[in-house]
Each structure stands twice: as structure tokens, then as C-alpha cells.
Hints:
By secondary structure, the chain is α/β, with parallel strands linked by helices.
Amino acid sequence: MRFDEAYSGNVFIKSHPSFEESQVVLYGMPMDWTVSYRPGSRFGPARIREVSIGLEEYSPYLDRELDEVKYFDAGDIPLPFGNPQRSLDEIEEVVSQILAADKFPFGMGGEHLVTWPVIKAMYKKYPDLAIIHMDAHTDLRESYEGEPLSHSTPIRKAANLIGPGNVFSFGIRSGMKEEFEWAKEVGMHISKFEVLEPLKEVLPKLAGRPVYVTIDIDVLDPAHAPGTGTVDAGGITSKELLASIHAIANSNVNVVGADLVEVAPVYDHSEQTVNTAAKLIREMILGWVK
């Protein structure tokens, strides 16, 4: 993947033209080869970029403007359609290059399995890595219908890699009974249904540690984000998710990378999901990159 020239397609609003001068690298992971219900999240990154032009550049929540953080939009990683393993290998290689340049990697999915190779790359640089995971689903299966490469498995893979005690999940309201039992047995933190209050309790424990944050858009109730592949009723509001992002921003946690995944524009003709996603990305960049 080329980083020495600006992406020729649509870019996220106020993207800086220079990779070298930027603190953050935005990149798309347009993969939805392993989804268990509705495909379409491979179109998420491109559409998020397109609607970002409608964003205000100023965040009244954080009193910061996008001009205050230089970020480079590298475009979408060219992934081989229908080939999960090669796609994951490509993602890991790109993120490794971003980290080698001491940049903050910010990924846009794509299905949630794309987080797995990112975690592998992050863990090589940050051996004391912790993960904050916001999602409707546990994503703790070992396989789905016999297939270990599935968007229902990335958090289990990550927990096995970095240690389950270093993974903190919030907003969870769906999963197999065995997944919840496994998390309890191995001491992994799972907050059911809610995000903000349990997150506030955990953040002091992560002070000073490198933390990767992965957000599945379906942590939001379908009323707030219908444009996703596996909708699940009973989720949080966009206001609570924004407050959670700001709670992390106002903590002593050292966020070293992030992603927002599972945005599938085809299921939301109102485009409220992609517009919400763009705003969330703005707040994450302004709040987490000092």
C-alpha cells in the first residue's frame, strides 16, 4: 500500500495530504467475506468518507477543530475478494507499516474480523496492550459453523493472544451461553447492556497503559444505527456512545489505535448510520490523539 501520495478517491474531511507530516493514518478495510447474516460492510469506509463532508470541523464537546490534528487518509486496503486469510495478512502488513512509522492507526471496517490482524500488529509493538471493545455481540466463538475465520470470533482470538484479563467488553447483549461462561471462567470483563457507567469504572485501572479501542456500530440500538449487518435490539443511544468516547478522552488511558466496524450503508437509506459513524470518528480523532 502506498503512503507517499494522497489517496485519489474521496477522503475524510480535512484529511492532510502528507503521510509523513500526519499523526494519524485513516485506512479502510473493505471486507465482509465471513459475515453470518447480511453482507455489505465492505462499502462502509467509502460511504463514511463521502458523507463526512457534511460534518462541522469543530467539536463543541471537546472544544477542538479538525485542523488541530493532522491525519492522512490512505484509502482502502486493496483486499482479495473472497479470500479471508490473504485479506487478514494484507491488513496486518499495512498496520505494521503504519506502526513502524510511529503513526496512530485508525481503521474503518468492514466486518469485525478485520480487527484481529490489527490486534496482532498492535501487540507486537505494545506487549502490555489492553483492548476496549464496544459491541452488541460477544464475538467470543472459536468458530462459526466450523469456520474459525468468522466475524463472530475476533475477540476470542484477541483474548487468547493478549490474555483475557486484558480485554474489556461493553454493551454486550447477544451471544451463545457458552461464550459468556467462557469469559467468566477466564476472568474476562464483560459489561452487559450498558457502556458508559461500567466504562468509567474500568478506565482508572487502565491508566497509563496502551489501549486499542474497537467499536462495532451495532453497539448502538438499531433505532440509531440500522445500517449494519447483524442488528440487535436493546442497544445504547448515540448520545451514550459519544459520552463514552469522551470519557476515554478525559481519562489517563493512552489510546494507541482504534477502529469502527460493521457499517453497512445499503440497509439504511436515510444514511443516519454512516453520518453517525463519521461524527464518531471525528470525536475519536479529536479526543484520543493529543
